[in-house]
Request: fold
Amino acid sequence: MTSPTFRAPSLRIALACVLFAALVACASAPTIAPSTSLTSATPAEMVAAIRASAGDGEGELSVQPLRDNEVEDLRDQAHRLEAQGHVADAAKALDHAISIVPGDPALLQERAELALLLGDRAAAASLAERAFALGSQVGPLCRRHWATLEQVRLLEGDAAGAAAAKAAIDACRIGPPARY
Reply:
């Protein structure tokens, strides 16, 4: 039996070409069209607008769950840290609180706002959507969910999405039940 002839130099050249092509493919950055933001607001201004959208809640239905003391301490800690400019540490405190009460819409919303401050639009949108789905879908907290989504959509350059979120803010306002 004869063994097949093997040309090592040709194989080496072919492998070198394949490796070179792979390296070029990895090195060239994909061209992604930059999103055109529809807002010039800073993250701090966006969060201030979100929180202001809640209003005072006077004269309307607002559902408030009972709070766990440890979770309340973590929320207070997060508020203090944020006020001191330690947003990442505030986010960690809220993450810990969420691990204790994962379905608390207020915690999720507060964490969404911190995600926006940290520049994480995807997390901000995801947390706000989850908070809305788990919440009462009325009242001041509901308005904050939609205001967060409005700000994210503005950042993404999605005018239609921002307009829809803005319209949903008004749908969150429901008066208290009639008293007889």
Remarks:
- Residues 87 and 118 are 7 Å apart (CA to CA).
- Residues 8-27 form the longest helix (20 residues).
- The domain at 43-57+66-171 is CATH 1.25.40.10 (Serine Threonine Protein Phosphatase 5, Tetratricopeptide repeat).
- Residues 14-33 have pLDDT under 50 and may be disordered.
